[in-house]
């Protein structure tokens, strides 16, 4: 499958506990988002990276890799969800914000080698370790060293296409937002197929770890800018 490193918009490490409770307001419109970046509450990573995400609590611990995948992995997930009023409204909101507010959860067939690579990444200092009101702890590590990025990409290139395991309405909203932005670009005569909105940020979990459901990365912790705002 195709799963690439990406430049992330995320909370400043020393202000994450301030940022996360305010995400509904920060991600309400472009002005609020730009203001949070200008204030230093959020930062835009200067280069592309993979991220390792770990969720621990009841019923256990799961680890995924965060990357951007072609948005077409989300299409056809649930036709009824894609046509729902809520999904259409959410698609318009994401297209207008031009930022995907949280990764979509996908399941893939992980290899033992990938487990070793991600385990090594988790030996370093984490960017975040945040425990939510439900007692679930969310940890994130950044992977940007060239050899580590190359190793993760090689493993993902060999993996079969992932399957959505998130709320079907959210996956439908992301696909809908990409379609809206693509339609705008085509109407303007600028569409190339390489625009960021052609990709969705996803947390790829080993299928065996999420057979009974996948956790959600907190909104605003790892976001993907899909168009210029």
Average pLDDT level: 92
Structural class: alpha+beta
Low-confidence segments? none
Counting H and I runs of at least 4 residues, what is the number of helices? 8
- SSE order, as H and E? EHHHEEEHHEEHEEHEHEE
Q: What distance separates the N and C termini?
A: 29 Å
Into which percent range does the helicity of residues fall?
25-40%
Query: Tell me, what's the shape?
Result: globular
Describe this structure as you would to a colleague.
The protein contains eight helices and eleven strands. With 229 residues, it is α+β, with helices and mostly antiparallel strands. The chain has one domain. A seven-stranded mixed beta sheet has the order 7-8-3-4-10-6-9. The chain has a two-stranded antiparallel ribbon with strand order 1-2. The longest helix is centred in the last third of the chain and has 21 residues. It is globular, with a radius of gyration of 17 Å. The protein starts with 8 loop residues before the first strand and ends with a strand. The model has no long low-confidence stretch (mean pLDDT 92).
